[in-house]
Design a protein that fits this description.
By secondary structure, the protein is mainly alpha-helical. 66% of the residues lie in helices and 4% in strands. It has a five-stranded antiparallel sheet, with helices on both faces.
Length: 560
């Protein structure tokens, strides 16, 4: 009978140990899964559900699941069920290093608690993180208890005092203490140990504020700057110039334009040092020239258009530092930036860079992007030198009308007399709007040599097919420039009768009147009055009456 009871007990112990091993395997597998998979990964969810199920079965059958913690092993009732000698991988090593000597899992354990526990003990933690004991106390897991090394010492002390010496009784006493143990409370430091003077508190507060404002990137820049300013070895200097160049590009790409400007400014200061040798100066120049890449230009353009991180003064300084070696990138930036004020700053910088040699902009005048060419024309027009004029007029026949319009605007604004001569070429432009604009400018500026080509324009075979607005602009220019010379032409248009046409048309009369109105002299008024007396068509007489009234009023104002 006694042998049978002992045999049944052995079977029960083996079943419990096998169950404990299954739970331990599930714990390890789930711990590794936490490192590999995201929380919503189906595989990790499967691992956690299997662990929870095995833990619940074990607790239901055997009451509790307790682990004895050794440096590299976890034991269950005197048998090791987990071993790992790698300190970085061993769960036992982490628990033991933080002073934990036993773990107890109680009935009612939930999946959430298990995953939280494994999140604490299953990863090697940086030295700056809280230890496992602190984290377990903060999370307050209701179905997990632990025994620290100091708890074992207290129990051994109780044993020595009570005089009971059975090892089994000692172990039972330890686990009973573990089951009854409450989570440790943080120890309060007596206030008298933290008393500071008012001055110390003030200093500490300022030091803390200063520390909170520190930027790691500032420290890196300071270190790099100090090294480059003092290093003498050519190879080391080359290496650190490369580091600073890469850092500048990366800072740009991160949108830290202020820090990028600081790095660029420092490299510019290096170039101005008298102690810099030619080879060193070449390395720094190449580093600067390599900062404005396609990627950094895109970031800079976005920053300029947002208007938040770069001031006008900072942008101007940045462009001046990059200078002529980065002219192509700066022109590219001008073509991309949409914010008008920022574009104006870029144009001003380009004018400064090209004032001594406008020829540096020549390659960009053949660029296929019309908006880039237009912006370069604007820069050249502000330079307003003979060479700039020569470069601009080469675009009068450009295929893009928007560029031709920009060129015409420059010719109109230019104080150079030669510039006005080129406007005559626009009389044959493909665009009616540009032809009209050219006629208006020629008339206003009194470019008398343009009279002959304008007369030829009015007598051309295709003239009648043009829009009325362009015809009117032609006759207004003739009246403005020709004065008395145009009277016979206007007389013919107003008075001469043609075969199969008893009187002049309203359009012909209106065009002649437009020219006479620009003359604003006695001869023009006399011709209008004469025509009014001879014409019988109501529409034509109405046009003549309005013109006579307007000229009479203008003459009266002049006399007054």
């Amino acid at each position: 009978m006694i042998e049978r009871a002992g045999h049944e007990q052995d079977i029960s112990t083996k079943e419990e140990l096998a169950s404990a091993q299954d739970v331990m395997l599930a714990l390890v597998r789930t711990s590794k899964g936490l490192r590999i998979y995201l929380p919503n990964n189906p595989m990790l969810i499967t691992f956690s559900e299997d662990l929870s199920e095995k833990m619940a079965q074990h607790l239901a059958c055997f009451g509790q699941f307790r682990l004895d913690v050794s440096p590299f092993a976890l034991g269950y009732k005197g048998r090791d069920i987990y071993e790992n000698d790698d300190p970085k991988e061993s769960i036992a090593c982490r628990l033991h290093a933080d002073g934990i000597r036993a773990l107890l899992f109680k009935h009612g354990m939930e999946t959430r608690e298990l995953m939280t526990l494994l999140g604490i003990i299953g990863f090697e933690r940086p030295s700056s993180d809280d230890d496992i004991v602190t984290q377990l106390w903060e999370r307050n897991l209701p179905h997990v208890s632990y025994l620290l090394e100091e708890d074992f010492l207290e129990v051994h002390l109780e044993e020595e005092t009570s005089g009971t010496g059975s090892q089994q009784e000692s172990i039972s006493l330890i686990y009973r203490a573990l089951a009854e143990k409450q989570p440790p409370q943080p120890k309060m430091i007596p206030k008298n140990l933290l008393m500071l003077t008012a001055e110390e508190v003030k200093w500490l507060r300022k030091a803390r504020q200063a520390e909170s404002r520190r930027n790691a990137l500032d420290d890196v820049i300071n270190i790099l700057s100090a090294i480059l300013a003092g290093v003498k070895d050519p190879d080391i200097f080359r290496d650190f110039v490369g580091i600073m160049s890469n850092l500048t590009v990366n800072v740009f790409l991160a949108g830290e334009i202020g820090h990028a400007l600081r790095l660029v400014r420092f490299m510019d200061q290096l170039l101005k040092l008298g102690s810099m040798g030619p080879d060193q100066r070449q390395l720094v120049s190449e580093a600067l020239a390599g900062v404005l890449t396609e990627a950094t230009l895109r970031v800079l353009q976005e920053a300029l258009d947002s208007g938040e991180s770069v001031s006008h003064e900072e942008l101007k300084e940045l462009l001046h530092i990059f200078g002529l070696p980065s002219l192509g990138a700066i022109c590219e930036l001008l073509g991309r930036v949409e914010k008008l004020k920022m574009r104006k700053v870029i144009i001003e910088a380009l004018v400064e860079l090209g004032k001594d040699n406008p020829g540096v902009f020549a390659p960009f005048l053949t660029d296929p992007r019309w908006y880039l060419v237009r912006n370069v024309v604007l820069v050249l027009s502000l330079l307003d030198t003979p060479l700039a004029l020569e470069m601009i007029v080469g675009l009068i026949s450009h295929k893009e009308a928007r560029i031709r319009r920009e060129v015409l605007g420059f010719l109109e604004r230019s104080a150079d007399v030669k510039a006005k001569n080129y406007i005559v070429k626009y009389l044959r432009d493909e665009s009616s709007a540009l032809r009209i604009k050219a006629l208006q400018v020629l008339a206003r500026e009194k470019i008398t040599f343009a009279l002959k080509p304008i007369v030829a324009l009015a007598g051309a075979e295709d003239f009648n097919g043009k829009d009325f607005a362009e015809k009117k602009a032609v006759y207004e220019a003739l009246g403005e420039l020709g004065s008395q010379e145009m009277i016979p032409m206007f007389r013919d248009m107003l008075l001469k009768k043609r075969w199969f046409q008893q009187s002049v048309t309203k359009e012909s009369a209106t065009l002649a009147v437009a020219g006479l109105m620009k003359m604003q002299n006695k001869a023009a008024l006399s011709l209008l009055e004469e025509a009014h007396g001879q014409r019988s068509a109501v529409e034509v007489k109405g046009v003549l009456e309005q013109a006579i009234s307007a000229l009479t009023a203008a003459k009266g104002r002049t006399a007054g």
